[in-house]
């Protein structure tokens, strides 16, 4: 694949899937700027993975796995402990006070969208990352298990618990 | 207690509502950073890029500590000295890298400093003090290029740098 064609194919791929990839990167990070750094590092590593050959854009499971690996490497570089198996509340950028994960399109009620976003951010990280991969990443539980390095049954259970937790916190809000 | 069908309906309703949410697209700034990699200079100069034998074969050094960055600059200098003294007699360093025969010297093309971004990391209390300060992280990288006069091959090194600036926060 000529370089210009390859470059354009990757750009088109990033435009199509960038939102979903960034959403998953946010699950792996504690700050918005860190999420963007992780996503960039992951995409760059995939781009360079074949030594500058002519490989086309990766499929989503590989991209999500690369993001997770980039997040782990990023945490090591910044010399911070990352607790991935414990519940953690997403830390918003304290200068903006709020970082939107979702656009306002798709739901008529902006207030309801914000409630759902808040509820998502309050989920334990281990449930949230499975939800993101399943709902917006269109991944199977087998793919999710491979990306996160967990058993498939665990992935399915966390998904179930995550949706159930949202159901409780949003009780009546989605009528 | 809810019956199972009611729970299943509620479950499906939650899933449907979640799927209706659309993840926010990456910012234009992030997109430009990523696209800049896709539009690498290599495409404009289609020759092999020969990695310097520092930090591991075939690897561009990336780390973000000023002290480590200073060590990288020192390694660049040593690598440049090694390159400019290459002859037909192979030295021990050459034996560690991919076998590339360089019969004439690479010529320095450019050296520069590229600002990447400034990130406001919020209010902190440096050194566990009582005065709040706003910490801003500046990230940039130093770039060096050498070109072979005969075949046009290019060597490029990018050394990341990071600095922190602490700004007083008005508390009145």
Characterise this structure.
The complex is a heterodimer of chains A (175) and B (172). Chain A has helices at residues 3-28, 32-48, 60-77, 110-122, 125-136, 141-148, 152-169. Chain A folds into 2 domains: 1-99, no CATH class; 103-175, Winged helix-like DNA-binding domain superfamily/Winged helix DNA-binding domain (Arc Repressor Mutant, subunit A, Orthogonal Bundle), CATH 1.10.10.10. With 175 residues, chain A is mainly α. Chain A is globular, with a radius of gyration of 17 Å. Chain A contains 7 helices and no strands. By secondary structure, chain B is an alpha+beta fold. Chain B has a domain at 107-168. Chain B has helices at 4-20, 28-38, 66-84, 92-96, and strands at residues 107-124, 133-147, 154-168. Chain B has a 3-stranded antiparallel beta sheet. The N and C termini of chain B lie far apart (55 Å). The model of chain B is unreliable at 41-64 and 92-96 (pLDDT under 50). At the A-B interface, helix 1, helix 2, helix 4, helix 5 and helix 7 of A face helix 1, helix 2 and strand 1 of B.
Short précis:
The complex is a heterodimer of chains A (175) and B (172). By secondary structure, chain A is mainly α. In chain A, 64% of the residues lie in helices and 0% in strands.
The pLDDT mean of chain A sits at: 83
Number of helices of chain B: 4
H/E element order of chain A: HHHHHHH
Helicity range of the residues of chain B? 25-40%
Tally of DSSP helical segments of chain A? 7
Give the fraction of residues assigned to helices of chain A. Answer: 55-70%
Widest sheet, order of strands of chain B: 1-2-3
Proportion of residues in β-strands of chain B = 25-35%
Provide the structure class of chain B: alpha+beta
Kindly report the average pLDDT value of chain B. Answer: 70
What would you call the quaternary organization?
Answer: heterodimer
Shape field of chain B: flat
Overall radius of gyration of chain A: 17 Å
Shape of chain A: globular
